[in-house]
Design a protein that fits this description.
By secondary structure, the chain is of the alpha/beta class. Helix content is about 45%, strand content about 25%. β11 and β12 form a beta hairpin. α1 packs across α2.
Amino acid sequence: MRHLQIYSYIDEIAKVGSIRKAAETLSITPSALNRRILTIEEELGVPLFERLPRGVRLSTAGELFIHQIRRQMSEMEQLKSQIADLSGVRRDHTSIACSQALLPYFIPEQIEIYQCEHPGVTFSVISRDREAAEESLSDYTSDIALVFEPVRVDDFETLLTIVQPIHAVLAKGHPLAKRRKLRLFDCMNYPLALPIAPYGVRVLLNKASKRLGIDLIPYVQSDSFDFLRNFARTQNTISFQIQIGLPQARSFDDMVHIPVDKRDIPPGLLHLTQLKGRTLPVASARFVDQLVNAFVKNFECA
């Protein structure tokens, strides 16, 4: 499997965009790494990388090559996990790309449950929303993705679709905090702390405000839902988030979350996805099964 080593070298260079930086990560000298790349390029008859003043980038041929080797590396990991499964000792790694909303509660809980039964399985979890999450599936950076309001659904295999209502998040002392449900018009009377435009929650808010003829003017906006929640805690503002990113209890710490009336903002859709045509490693496939069961038990699924 020596060819997989050079594949991993090429993969690392493509990720960091520099032979020198990749060499540091791989514990090899830049000159030795460059020689190995030149040997592969000579065998192929085309350059895989364009040499730039400050680093390298994949050539057109390199883009084709990297996609192929990532697929082969993924298939080898799948084979290794199947062999490990034969011995009854599951040792594998699962990489997840997911929207920020799943990071505080849902994903940590699910990983803890899985590792209690299979402590040999490791995980990496990266915060990726919409296009970035989809890209991580395409380049094999992630095995699975949980994407809210995805951009290119047809390019991926959707394993489950979960309905996610929008909730307003506000301090317990806010004038609207005792309401059981909120209309969007009610919220417009207070400063708004909103996610930036690419995020799915903001997309739904923009659609709703346009349909209702409301001017959606953020008092503050950010790409961090943690920041937006904390800002709403200390200021007389309202933020918004999907249900899965909030505690099950309506009240938490010094905050409350209240569903926004579905007549104003219809629920969005959270998609559990993988790359179309890819067979997942055993551990990842079993983790997907666990996620599906948890979603079906705790949330409305489409």
